[in-house]
Amino acid sequence: NDVIDKHTQAGLDLLERYIKFVKERTEIEQNYAKQLRNMTKKYSKRGSKEEQECKFSNHASFQEILNELGDYAGQRELIAENMTANISDKLTKYLQDLKQERKTHLSDVKKAQQNLESSFKHLESIKKRFAKEWAEADKATQQAEKLESDNNNSKIDVDKAKNHALARMRTAEECRNSYAAELQKYNKEQNYFYYTEIPQIFNKLQDMDERRIRQLAEGYCQFSHIEKNVLPIISKCLEGIAAAGTKIDEKK
């Protein structure tokens, strides 16, 4: 149980670590986009003089480059947004559900162990009572035999001792039957605990851990897919920047 406890906790720790990793990556993308936008704003020309200069192709092309870079920044922001929604937020909610599920399964293991321990303690108490009653019955039987073998004792005393011994023996027999029944019951409970109840709970924990691994693997893939999805538009931005440079006519 301790091994499974540690193993499943290590799995949750890795999931949590990956979420933090993606959040840091998201912050980098957000900061990068913000810095790009600030830079395009800083270098963009405004006003009548600038408008006059933009009639020249080399001035106009630089403005186009800044516009393309603004669009490029937008794609970096989109990466951050999608990583937050499709990885961080999704896995964070999933992690909370897993923590609760794991807690429930481990609690069920603990309850099952406590129930078995309680049954064993009850069995031990019945066993002790049986041992005590059997010892008392044996003692009473020996006492009756001793009185009977001594001719100086009256028949009334001997019969009284015999009846007392028989009563003790009946009580001891009842205790033995109770112990035998309780032992049979405990053996069934122990068998159910080791071969049915605990394996079922551990199977649920294994299923939970396999689901966690599948979700984490999907999160790993998303880390790549999210960026790949914006590459076509990023390529267009870069092509636009190149086009802005190639269309300049130095003669004009």
UniProtKB/TrEMBL annotation:
Xref: PROSITE patterns: F_BAR
Ranges for domain F-BAR: 1-252
The keyword Coiled coil belongs to this UniProt entry's keyword annotation: yes
Keyword Coiled coil applies: yes
Alphabetically ordered keywords of this record: Coiled coil, Lipid-binding
Coiled coil: 95-189
SMART domains named among the record's database cross-references: FCH (SM00055)
InterPro entries: AH/BAR_dom_sf, F_BAR_dom, FCH_dom
Protein name, UniProt field: Cdc42-interacting protein 4
UniProt source species: Xenotaenia resolanae
